[in-house]
Design goal:
Layout: H1 25-36, E1 41-45, E2 48-52, E3 57-63, E4 66-71, E5 75-78, H2 82-89, E6 94-98, E7 101-104, E8 108-113, E9 119-123, E10 128-131, H3 136-146
Antiparallel strand pairs: 1-2, 3-4, 3-7, 4-5, 6-7, 8-9, 9-10
């Protein structure tokens, strides 16, 4: 893949043009990432509203019918339901790992098997996430795409 960057002072908005011979997975991933760069999740912390960029999110969790967005330094309360957030993000970077948790796979360091056919994911910040057996194929497919070992 070849990257061409051009600075143009006569335009008011950044434009991204993607040229490809075939719309394969790599091109689709690039399209999703560019599209995602304009998206954000609204979150509240101490009475203030914030725009949280998807790339800053480690995981999103639902606890007692409340949704929380976890970043490296803060936890935001969000009014959206998990399924709404997953639809909005519509990206290969986010995957559901349990009924109550969506994970940004870019923040995942490693996974390993634990009790009751579940898995545990270690995030790059050292935090641990439980992956329910129903959702293990979602995570294994991510590691299979990258050619990594899953255990």
């Amino acid at each position: 893949m070849k990257l061409i960057l051009k600075q143009q002072s006569d335009i008011s908005e950044t434009e991204v043009e993607i040229r490809y011979a075939k719309l394969d997975d790599a091109v689709q991933d690039l399209i999703n990432r560019v599209d995602q760069s304009n998206q954000f999740i609204s979150g509240e912390d101490n009475g203030r509203q914030y725009r949280v960029l998807p790339g800053d999110i480690y995981y999103i969790e639902s606890v007692d019918k409340k949704t929380f967005v976890y970043t490296a330094t803060k936890v935001f309360r969000c009014d959206m339901k998990l399924y709404q957030i997953l639809e909005k993000l519509n990206s290969t970077d986010f995957v559901q790992v349990s009924k109550s948790c969506i994970l940004n796979v870019n923040m995942l360091d490693n996974i390993h098997a634990i009790y009751n056919s579940k898995m545990e994911g270690m995030l790059i910040n050292g935090e641990k996430i439980i992956i329910s057996r129903t959702f293990i194929p979602n995570i294994k497919s991510i590691f299979a795409e990258e050619g990594s070992d899953t255990t």
